Amino acid sequence: MGSALMANDVRLAPGIDSGAPKVCFFEDCNKDSVPLVGGKCASLGELINAGIRVPPGFAVTTAGYAQFMREAGIQDEVNALLRGLDHEDMDKLEAASNAIRQMIESRPISIELEDLIAEAYRKLSVRCYLPAVPVAVRSSATAEDLPGASFAGQQDTYLWIRGIDDVMHHIRRCISSLYTARAIAYRIRMGFPHEQVAISVGVQKMANAYTAGVMFTLHPSTGDRSVIVIDSNFGFGESVVSGEVTPDNFVVNKVTLDIIERTISTKEICYTADLKLQRSVAMEIPIERQNIQSVIDDEITELAWMAKKIEKHYGRPMDIEWAIDKNLPVGGNVFVLQARPETIWSNKQKAPATTGATSAMDYIVSSLIVGKRLS
Fold it and tell me: What is the pTM of this model?
């Protein structure tokens, strides 16, 4: 199916190919599928096809989005609300955003499209051996990770969504998040036409994370490419990504996979699944666990190895979200949830600033010369 997708003349909105599939599974996508499934879902497909462990899922494509908007019959009203907005007038931006989002979320998904989504969700549940499998519903815009612009993170993600009715509801919420005040303002400021951005929605099996976080295949503070930096906290990665906690931090040598720096923070909250309410909730971490290392050393080594493999595949530094599933056995429980090119240091045309060893090989040589303290 992957080659069939690529054969379609899929372009950015409004020129989306009406013959493109409305729903497709991640493994049928790759890095060239951005016009069809957005940056996030295209990256997940690319990772799966590169042999990286990724929770399975499917995407409601930009063709599905276009069909929904066309059948909703609200595009002219949306365009009218967007016309003449100033990216610095937050009151008018918020008013327009609220009106547009309310319109989108109040419109029904057609029976045809709903059937396609429901069948994909059923297949995903069967594949995961879980009735009404809990999923993350993630926005995946076509303009994410463009050179000279960073649209990533402007749309919504919803965690631990279960049952087809809730999945449908949150798909509409993801579509409407294309019109948050922040996203509208950014497109105006960057001179990026609203009609050239389409959105796909990823529906991905939820990793029931014991620990989760982010990692970079360079040092985000210095640009040092000889290391991998891992941030972690208990529960879902939302607390790390949002900055609600100071996570544990590990700096790993990229060649030897030695942990060369380790900082264990006081972590007061985490996000986890409330199995009675069947949703993600913030909870206080018991005081006796707040200063415990949230990810063990063997898992740090596996994460670093996966990060190296992803960087090698993409040929550039990467920003990666990951989770360790508490319901699966060791050896098959570390998952990559998302990977995107690192943009801050990669766009700087200068040598990275480092302290101590300036490369992974320098680190190894210096260790041999001066010896290495064992702890």
Answer: 0.85
